[in-house]
Design goal:
By secondary structure, the chain is α+β, with helices and mostly antiparallel strands. It contains four helices and five strands, in the order E-H-E-H-E-H-E-E-H. The strands form two sheets. It has a three-stranded antiparallel β-sheet. Strands 1-3 form a two-stranded parallel sheet.
C-alpha cells in the first residue's frame, strides 16, 4: 500500500502546479517530478491531465511560458507564475485549507 498512487481530486492539480511554480519556473516534466517528490510518489499526475491544465492556466493568465533548454539539453517550454497566478494560488490555498478542515471534522465525527 505504501507505493500505491492516488489520482488527484478535480481542481487539485491546478493548486499543486501553482504552488510548484511559486518557487521557480519549470518545464512540464519538472513540475510532475517535483509534485511526485513532494508527495513521496503517493500522487499520480498524468501527462493527459498536466498539459491541458497548463494550457488552461496560461489562458487564464495565471502562468506564462517561454521556450528554453532543459537540463538534458532539449528544447522545452518553461512555465512561470504571474502576479494573477500568485493571487490565485493564495485564494486556492485558503479554499483548500477550509475544505480540508471541514472534511477532517466530518471524518473524525465532530
Amino acid at each position: 500500500m505504501a507505493n500505491e498512487r492516488t489520482d488527484l481530486l478535480q481542481g487539485t492539480l491546478e493548486l499543486l502546479i501553482l504552488n510548484t511554480l511559486a518557487r521557480e519556473s519549470m518545464h512540464g516534466y519538472g513540475i510532475v517530478q517535483r509534485i511526485h517528490e513532494a508527495a513521496e510518489d503517493s500522487l499520480k499526475v498524468e501527462d493527459g491531465s498536466l498539459y491541458p491544465a497548463l494550457y488552461r492556466m496560461e489562458e487564464r493568465g495565471w502562468i506564462k511560458s517561454e521556450w528554453g533548454v532543459s537540463e538534458n539539453n532539449r528544447r522545452a517550454k518553461f512555465y512561470k507564475l504571474t502576479r494573477t497566478g500568485q493571487k490565485q494560488l493564495e485564494a486556492q490555498r485558503a479554499n483548500w485549507n477550509r475544505v480540508s478542515k471541514a472534511v477532517t471534522r466530518i471524518l473524525q465525527g465532530t
